[in-house]
Amino acid sequence: SNDGSVTAESVPSLMKHMPLCMNHLMKGVMTEHHLKYSGRQQLSLFLKGIGLNAEEAMRFWQMQFTAGPGSMSIERFNKDYKYTFRHNYGLEGGRINYKPWDCRTILSKPKPSKSEFHGCPYRDMHRDQLANELHKMGLDSGSRMDDVLDLSDRGEYQTACTKVFELTHKDRIDAMLKNGETVDETSIIHPNLYYSRSVYLEGK
Ligand code: SF4
Q1: What atom of ligand 1 comes closest to residue 191's alpha carbon?
Q2: Domain positions in the chain
Q3: What pLDDT, on the 0 to 100 scale, is given for residue 3?
Q4: How far apart are alpha carbons 78 and 6 in whole angstroms?
Q5: CA distance 138 to 45
Q6: pLDDT grade, residue 204 (50/70/90)?
Q7: N or C, fewer C-beta in 10 Å, the chain?
């Protein structure tokens, strides 16, 4: 949706609806007060897709990049970073309306280095780190978590992500099925699809 209801301040509260790749980027920017190029692109276009308008986006990124001890000044943000975020909204340069990246695009980019947060965690995290993240998302260790980890090991990242969505939204999905409602069970192929499906289920 692009109804303008997403504000710079409300973005963190929406993390519960975001897939692991975007959760990881959000945690990255909130702890580092910075993201490198690919991370900025992946997260800012996603946020644009969930309805963060240009004005709120500038406020969000400035808040994140200039908050906390040791972070950059507002002057530095305006001088070195504001342009790239405005560019993603088509407000600078070629004025192209860039689209949020789908999983295929995310997976086609170079893998993140140690200080980077972009990419797909089902591909890029070590099994232990991934298990830890899944635990934080509410999955208990056991056969269902092992299923997700095995899918990731086999390179079936989107199937792993879809499985995590189903496990973390199980109660609502079950309630809908019980009511005879149709549940979209197609594979997650886009982070914004994961998000909108989660928001939709919350309203159920
Ligand atoms: Fe993100 Fe797609 Fe990977 Fe899920 S499968 S974590 S939506 S890139």
Answers
A1: 7
A2: 11-101, 105-109+116-202
A3: 52
A4: 22
A5: 27
A6: confident
A7: N
* 121 Cα: distance to centroid of ligand 1 (angstroms): 7
Half-sphere exposure of 31 (CA within 13 A, CB side): 9
Would you say residue 144 has pLDDT above 70?
A: yes
Report the pocket of ligand 1 as residue ranges, CB < 6 Å. Answer: 19-21, 103, 106, 120-122, 157-158, 161, 188, 191, 194
Here the ipTM equals 0.99
Ligand 1 mean position, distance from CA 74 (Å): 32
CA dihedral 141→147→153→157, nearest 10 degrees, is -110
Indicate which atom in ligand 1 lies nearest the CA of residue 123: 3
Read off the pLDDT band of 203 (50, 70, 90).
confident
Report the nearest-CA residue for atom 2 of ligand 1: 103
Which residue has its alpha carbon closest to ligand 1 atom 3?
A: 120
Compute the distance from residue 73 Cα to the ligand 1 centre, in Å: 33
| Separation of CA 132 from chain center | 17
Mean pLDDT of 12-31: 97
CA of 69 to the centre of ligand 1 (A): 31
**What pTM does this model have?**
0.94
Question: ∠76-68-39 over CA atoms, to 5°?
Answer: 65
